[in-house]
Amino acid sequence: MNKEEENSAGGKGTHLDRKKLFSTVGTPDYIAIEVLYQKGYDKMVDWWSLGVIMFECLVGFAPFHAKDPLATCRKIVRYEKYFKIPPEAKVTKHALDLMKRLVCPAHRRIGIDQIKKHQWFKVWCIFFSFCLNQKKRQ
Fold first, then answer.
1. Tens-place pLDDT, residues 75-127
2. Among 23, 64, 75, 82, which is most exposed with the fewest C-beta within 10 angstroms?
3. How many CA atoms lie within 13 A of 105 on its CB side?
4. For residues 107 and 100, what is the distance between their CA atoms, to the nearest angstrom?
5. Burial letters for 54-66: b for 16+ Cβ neighbours within 10 Å, e otherwise?
6. In the chain, what are the domains?
C-alpha cells in the first residue's frame, strides 16, 4: 500500500497529512477553478470562495450562477469572461482589486497575510474604529 492509499484508507497517515486534495465537493457557485481541473488543490481554494462571496454581497448576485451546475462550472473555467462588475453596482476600486486578487489562478491568488494588509480592509478597520469610538462616547 502506498502513502496515498494509506491516507485514504485511514492507515498510518491521515487526510490532514496531505498537501493537496482531489475531491470535488461544495456548492458549484463557489468552487475554485483548480478544483474543477481535478489536478489537486490546497487551502487557497477558500480564498477564491471568499472572493465570490464578497462579489455576491457587494453586487447582489453570484458571478458564475447558471440554471444548472454544469453551466456554472463552465463559467468558472472561463472566469475572466464572467467575473465582471456591472457599473450600477458602484463597487470601490479597493473592493474590486481585492476580489480580483482572490478570484484568479491559484499561483496568483493572495493568502491571509496579504488579505489582512489589503487596502479594502484598512478602510473598513478605520470605519469600524470610528463607529466604536462614537458609540463609547454616547
1. 999 999 999 999 899 999 999 999 999 999 999 999 999 998 899 987 766 66
2. 23
3. 4
4. 13
5. bbbeebeebbbeb
6. 3-110 (1.10.510.10)
